[in-house]
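Input record (Table S2, row 361):
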Amino acid sequence: MSLHLSATVPQRGVDVDLRLAEGETVALLGPNGAGKSTVVSLIAGLVHPEVGRAELGGRTLFNLAGSRGTWVPAHRRGTALLAQEPLLFPHLNVRENVAFGPRSTGSSRKTALAAADRWLAEVDAADLARRRPSELSGGQAQRVALARALAAEPALLLLDEPMAALDVEAVPLMRRLLKRTLAGRSALIVTHDVLDALTLADRVLVMQEGRIVESGPAAVVLRRPRSQFTASLAGLNLVAGIRKSGGFVAGDFTLPGVLAEPAAGGEGARWLAAFSPTSVAVHPAGPVHPGVVHPAGPGGGVHTLFRARVTDLEPQGDRIRVRAGGLAADISPGRAAELGLDPGQDVVLALNPEAMELYPE
Ligand SMILES: Nc1ncnc2c1ncn2[C@@H]1O[C@H](COP(=O)(O)OP(=O)(O)OP(=O)(O)O)[C@@H](O)[C@H]1O
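Output record (adenosine-5'-triphosphate complex):
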């Protein structure tokens, strides 16, 4: 069902306004402490905002705007929460754990157990029905917890980093199950993993310091990040600059002519450039002046060169990631050896405007 939440929790620095359409799965991303879990807790009824309101499928969950506030308690909200830890009842077996949801909303024991069997089959856990939670692996327990959440037939499923506590081997199966069960379902999933956003969500929201700062389809948000957090999730360099004489001017360099006919923003408008570290070439320090254009740069085309100091070197898959001038450049180990790179050394970076995504801030 559709959700609208607008709430402020000053003690946690959270002030959000978000909507989910009916049947939409939304991923909520953001750095540690951004307020993601607080948003989930607000919807679930576990945190009381100072002001705000929330509606799920047209039904008020809370409304603290007027003098006579409305507050629906957690167990009557029609939401189910799957957290990092499965939190199964230790004294009940798996089947009874899953049947607990329908039982608590008034189903007969027989109907609740039939629902449990159906949902256990749905998460490939039918064979675990008679086990106690203590006899399950972490991955199995989380699948059972998912079945329990779904068996409650929630109008909105809330998932707060549901795979964060799993062993790496258990994650792919859980992700496949989530993909299957979240399809067409109203759900909000908090995650740190960009793959979850890409595979599970119709749309992503990025939170920072208690506010939602980016929103859109995962592919768009990741191609055109608006914050360093999202850029690093997407594995991109992000540089802020301004439009000047048709060019993009950042602190260290200028990309002439790239904004000659911009779709938006005039002279002095703020623009962003996002580009992959693999598109940045590294050359020995030479007689280069800031912003000088190399007409036939590596890979062809017009490149912009600028001097920068290497701050760090780190392995990046089968490449070496060079951090210099606030940017990342991924080069081959052979090239790094050829350049004899060391932190503190000056180099020349070559940027290829053709490999960049340029967009108004
Ligand atoms: N129980 C609490 N009491 C008071 N403040 C809290 C409580 N839980 C979290 N906070 C604070 O509220 C802010 C938002 O925290 P929240 O847990 O919602 O962030 P998050 O984005 O989920 O972080 P993480 O990714 O680390 O889980 C943080 O400043 C945090 O320190």
